[in-house]
Amino acid sequence: MLEKKHLEYRDRIRAFMEETIAPKALALDIEQRFPDEHMKPLTDMGLMSMLIPEKYGGRPTDTITYTIAVEEASRVCGSTGIMLAAHNSLGCWPIYAFGTEEQRQKYLPRAAQGGLLAFGLTEPDAGSDAGGTRTMALKKADHWLINGSKCWITSATKAFATIASARTSDDPEDKEITCFILEKDWPGYAVGKKENKLGLRGSDTAFLHFDDLKAPLDSQLGQIGEGFKQMLKTLDGGRISIGAMALGLGQGAFDCALKYSASRKQFGKPISYNQGIQHKLADMATQLEAARLLIYEAAQMKDAGMSFGHMSAMAKLYASEVATKVAGDAIGILGAVGYYTGPYPVERMWRDVKLCTIGEGTSEIQKLVIARHLLKQVEGKG
Amino acid sequence: MDFRLSEEDLDLKQMARDLAQKRIYPIAEEMDEHGETPRELIDECAELGYFGFTVPEEYGGLGMNSTSFMGVLEEICSASAGFGIMLSVHNSLCCEIIKLFGSEELKQRYLPEMAAGTRIGAYCITEPDAGTDVASLKTTAVLQGDQWVLNGTKSYVTNGAFAGIFVVFAKTDPAAGHKGISCFLVPAGTPGLMIGKAERKCGIKASDTRELSFSDVKVPKDHMMGEPGAGFRMAVTILNSGRIGVAFQSIGIAQSALNEALKYSKERKQFNQPIANFQAIQFKLADMAVKIDAGRLLAYRAAQLKDAGEPCHREASMAKLFCSEMANEVANEAVQIHGGYGYIKEYAVERYFRDARVTMLYEGTSEAQRMVISRDLLRE
After folding, report:
1. Of A69, B96, B221, B348, which one's alpha carbon is 20 to 30 angstroms from that of A261?
2. How does pLDDT run across B345-354, given as a tens digit for each residue?
3. What is the pTM of this model?
4. Measured between alpha carbons, how far is residue B342 from residues B178, B287, B357 in Å?
């Protein structure tokens, strides 16, 4: 029951993904290669600027349209899905939401043209507990002096700039966190080697190191001490797109298993004639639909200006857990051939989707967010 | 896509919530214990129009759509799923099938009394040997002169004891399989219709469940609804309403179970602190809430498709499958959070746990839903 414009958009974006991205997905995975050649077609489709207003060269859409784009990209290539999700939700959105007019003018038009942006929150000793951030930014007379490292940064090797969080008080007890926009070309900004991963191998993930990086005073994003809040707000939105990414990977694996079950013959008939297979398919489809509706609900709440953090946590938690299970069941339906890299995409999707239960907050962190929201409601009632 | 209810629907839901909390919840345990529904409660619901929710106004109903009714049903079921199923069977199955397939004369004759709550409906399809395999039912109807003569046995009939009208499926052409099934209206009190003793059940004990036997039960010729042999198709159409109804019943049970668990986890102290402080409890609560929300979205989608007159087979089955299994998981966890207290009748979660079980069985078992869904998927 999507609106007509959404259904038409889905058809268009699916055709594009199947034609342009899908044929390369296997090679990107095997070669661990970032698809530079995809950046222009993705940009031309408006996919790099979905959360950027027209004023800054963007092609803004509502959040449901955005989730459809991420879902359809991930349905054929998880690496493309996460690149889009990270760039739009974590790179572009906070600069627009928290940046000055100058910062918006400086970064958003370039991002809309396909210049990748990254988001640096996680550190070796600060995962779920972002309070453990060690990266330091010290205010000098005419610059910020930044030292520290960020890890597991999506698109790190390609991004022309990153948002990064840092402590801005030299008192070790003070957890004051502030965000900055840092450019790759600035001396002291170094990118680590590309990580070798279980899945999403076409996406570039690496460390970022800041070694006596002198950042101009106006690289500060928003107010001093607002960084933690900004990060959490950014993740509220980002989680919807990680949910959509998980959904796309689950749907891609499901579509493959459904088709396979109708063509694979054993005991003289297609395996889809067996109830054991039929009921697996029914469960998979039901769970994916439920996940999709949670994602749309979160998206609609966001667009309606409602408080939606708990709903995006629900959507991300549920979609990622369910899609991981669906992709595993898809391998089960294909049997041995599903376990091999190449003939069918299901094992790649299973490896890819696992990230969705971890990135932008583990499933355990989502539950924490949701439970806090629930218990606060009971407290409110006294 | 917009699942948000209209202002009017929200008002109706709020009214139902008030009734559920003030009038139904306080006596829910008693109804469960004795298997009876007080007549005053039925009258009160009738006054609010709950017996003719989707019946057109010209026949004395409220003329509302299923989506509005489902909001109300969820609230009623959150207080007593047993009382709720009585309303659901009456509205979603009996009124609905007469509204869709009854002749003008039958509608005028029965719907106003049904909408007023003075003639409650019962729906007779399942038999001792015909459950999921509906086509194998054995009750027969033979035309003799201008009367149909029915013979056979129907099992698990909700509202059996006090129903004023029975919707009965019987074979008019036993050789034709599912194409030989037709649908009849049998008014209460028709000679030969025998009401068996009340079944003893695990849950939804506030509702009345009976075996019925038909021994040369005669009804006028015009009491067949639809064409001869169209019964199976009619039943399948109506099943969507029934399944969506069970989905909302499940949501009502689950929501209450979660609410109780939330409240209890804040009050109950162990190791010098409320157990809500423990992550093991918090994460259970989070999982429960996620599943309820996902279920509610599936259920509203199915209801809205149905109201829009669009095909909703797959969606209704998905909603029913998901919500019923979800309600069992949620009620189970609510008992777990209550610990030993959850196992005794002083706490409502014990009842929710028992009540939830039937939602995976009636209006098609979970396995039957999976058959519907997978067939639909594979047809594409």
Report:
1. A69
2. 889 999 999 9
3. 0.86
4. 45, 19, 16
